[in-house]
Design brief:
By secondary structure, the protein is of the alpha+beta class. Helix content is 24%, strand content 39%. It has 1 helix and 4 strands; from the N terminus they run βββαβ. The chain has a 4-stranded mixed sheet with strand order 1-2-3-4, covered by helices on one side. The protein is globular and about 30 Å long.
Length: 74
Amino acid sequence: VYRNAGWISPVVLLNGRVIGIWSNRRRGNRLSLEIQPFENLSKSIHRKIQEEAASLGDFLETSWEIKFSRRLFG
């Protein structure tokens, strides 16, 4: 997914299909993730994304928080 000035956004994949983009910021010792979906996400997909966020936090040895924005399209 390309943005202005040729930036490439990290994507959220579900079964090989792009369903959104994500971004991250470090706030002190905390990792802050923002998910911007392209469609409405079910509770089970929210849980799967949170599990991946927890794995990333464990890998980086930091606490984390996640924010789901409103969908980008439609």
